[in-house]
Amino acid sequence: MNTEEKYELLKENLLKCGSLAVAFSAGIDSALLTLTAHRVLKDNMIAVTAVSPLMPKAEIEAAKDFCQKNGIKHILCPIDNALDNIRDNPKDRCYICKKAIMKTLLNEAKKNGINHLAEGSNMDDISDYRPGAKAIAELGLLSPLKQAGLTKADIREIARLEGIPFWNKPAYACLATRFPCGSKLTEEKLKAVEAAEDYLHNKGLLQIRVRCHENLARIEAADEYFELLLNKDLLKEIDLKLKSLGFRYVSLDLGGYKTGNMN
Predict the structure, then answer these.
(1) Rounded to two decimals, what is the model's pTM?
(2) CATH class held by domain 3-161
């Protein structure tokens, strides 16, 4: 099937649901799923977004803004004690975290008279390291993008044609992925990483990660930013800013940005 045919299949499958809640993270996958479900099911769908220290505030605001502009009913769901079971950052952190988040969102859907919760996994995720996929399967969640055979490239192309302004938005992940397994997670560390990445985003460095190794911040940047980052004045500015956030050392990873580098 081509991209257009997959998109038509997505709409057909969503219509069959009758009613649906969509787990909306403000990423492009869940944004397309949310918008399409809204257009197909109208008032019989809601978007639900988890709120926790693991989710950057900028992403929460982006989710709110998107739903407001598109007339989508949107519910923010605080995840109580989000860090309690993953403070030691165990190897199965993503599974534990995903299950707690999706359980909360599923319960919110049921409170609103909706029995099905959909999430934004796509075909490319099958070959990626996704411990949270086990939680999705155990809870019986729907993955309509994957079911329709849509890849990331398909999703970006459809989003562009449908007028979603951030169709080329870089992939994101929760803040816990900035820490190696076994490194204790605290609200203070998460806020420092979030502030560091917000600062770098505001400098135009969008595809970037600040990996935290205790008191060292290791910046991973996409290849296209390397020339900019070799500016001596900018490097000094970044160094001072990140040290003001509590890091003692600031480094630039010469290997560049790699998805799932802390897996």
Answers:
(1) 0.90
(2) alpha beta
**SS3 category, 257:** coil
pLDDT for 199 beyond 90: yes
Question: Where are the chain's structural domains?
Answer: 3-161, 186-252
State the distance between the two ends of the chain, measured CA to CA, in whole angstroms: 33
**Cβ distance 257 to 208 under 8 Å?**
yes
Could you tell me how far CA 36 lies from the centroid of its own chain? Answer: 18
- 23: its two tokens: 């787990």
CA torsion, ordered 234, 55, 32, 17, to nearest 10 deg: 170
186-252 architecture in CATH?
2-Layer Sandwich (3.30)
pLDDT band at 85 (very low <50, low <70, confident <90, very high): confident
C-alpha dihedral over 123, 126, 127, 128, to 10 degrees?
100
**What distance in Å separates the CA atoms of residue 30 and residue 91, rounded to the nearest whole number?**
26
Q: Among 13-27, 126-140, 180-194, which is the least confidently predicted range?
A: 126-140
Using alpha carbons, select from 225, 24, 204 the residue that is nearest to residue 109: 24
